[in-house]
Write a structure and sequence with these properties.
150 residues; 9 helices; signal; peroxiredoxin activity; 4CMD/NDH-1_regulator; AhpD-like
């Protein structure tokens, strides 16, 4: 039994990404902040900042891990990451996060037409109800951005 636990612990240690284990939390938070600002026109993310007030651990974990470790990995550019995030959130029906990431996608040059294509693609793996909800979310986002430009 103890041997199995040691083997399991060794496997877990080997599975830990080097960047996450080698960098300090502060370095990971700095990378996460940089990711947010690069996607959000140099601004912080309001939802993350509100979360930081009441749920500081969750905000720090989001910024350090999701953004500092995962989002800042090499291998995909921001455009591809945003399209993947929009598609994933649309497919699981997570409209709030989908809207945030669709906004980031628009900020970095993805077009409205490309985001609409993502919604059409969602019909295949997730079905029409999820795609229709995603289309409503995009319509809201597009309208808000147009109003903001006036």
């Amino acid at each position: 039994m103890h041997r199995q636990i040691r083997i399991f612990a060794a496997v877990l240690l080997c599975a830990t990404p080097l960047a996450a284990s080698a960098d300090t939390t502060e370095e990971r938070l700095t990378r996460g902040d940089s990711v947010i600002r690069s996607l959000n026109n140099g601004e912080t993310q309001p939802t993350l900042e509100r979360m930081r007030e009441e749920f500081p651990f969750l905000a720090e974990a989001t910024e350090a891990y999701a953004l500092g470790d995962v989002w800042s990995r090499p291998g995909l550019d921001n455009r591809t990451r945003q399209l993947a995030a929009v598609a994933a959130f649309a497919a699981i029906g997570e409209r709030v996060f989908m809207k945030v990431h669709a906004g980031y996608a628009l900020n970095i040059g993805v077009t409205e037409e490309e985001l609409k294509e993502i919604v059409y693609m969602v019909t295949v793996p997730a079905g029409f109800p999820k795609a229709i909800a995603a289309s409503q979310t995009l319509s809201e986002l597009f309208a808000e951005r147009r109003e903001g430009q006036q």
